[in-house]
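It is worth pausing here to work through a concrete case rather than discussing structure prediction in the abstract. The textbook approach is simple: state the sequence, then state the predicted structure, then interpret. We follow exactly that order.
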Amino acid sequence: MISSLLIALAAGAASAVMFASIVSGALVSIFLFYLAPLPLMVACLGWGPMTATIGGIAAATSLGLLFGMGYLAIFAITIALPAWWLGHLALLGRTVEAPASVMGNAEPRTEWYPIGRILLWIAVFASITTMAALLTLGTDSETILGALKRSFARIMSGRTEGDTDNIANAIAMIAPSAASVVAIITLTLNLWLAGRITATSGRLKRPWPDLRTLALPSMTLVALCIAIALTFLGGIVGLFAQIVSATLLMAYALTGFATLHALTIGMRSRTLVLSMIYAMVLVLGWPMLVLACLGLADAFFGFRQRLGERRPPETAA
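Step two, the predicted structure:
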């Protein structure tokens, strides 16, 4: 009990320091800020959700006492709550009775919470945190976009006035969607790193999932279509729908990676092909749209399921 409490306080302190480092304005602080959920996720996966809860409360309280209630609320909503809930879902499982076989009754197995639903929760948190951040700038789209435009215009103050207005306006239009995409990527990366750390230490209670089977729930397609339709309404509803659309498309891009890994099994040049695609995504960025289309196509046509049906069953040793 004492050891768990010390780990909770240590994880909370590390997360709070990484979150508060953004105040320094240093370039490395941006990297630390995005990794702030990692200590709490490691504590949750390795020592249980209660450890992450204690660490999150301690960290949020410390930030509130040092910097004010605003920092407490932001940390609790954007860092502590997602870290605790995602870690809790990753450890969620239920015992399923296996059907009786010819050789006798099989042992019950544990059915773990699907990783596709965890990814959907990550998309939900990414959308909500981005919306909450924008609401601090105003309660209507004109005020929010105007504040973003003025902020980017100050950053580019060295340019001519006409160029500054045009570029700032263009960046302000895409900034909400870009922020939500960054949020889902960083949350996913944090959870993956936390899982790897706890698995390496031997404290991960669930087996490592096969990420090639990553698939979003079928109703996600319906939610994406509704969100895209709502973007045409304009106003604050259209702005928030734009954020949700971008986040869900990024989620499908991640399932596109999983589809790509599954479809390239057995290729002689698989490592080279995957390395080139990852390099193109990191350097160019736009191939992520192709992967999103691949993820959507797999959701519609079930490429991985058909591939699995065509493969011959493995023979028993």
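Step three, interpretation. Residues 313-317 have pLDDT under 50 and may be disordered. The longest strand covers residues 93-96.
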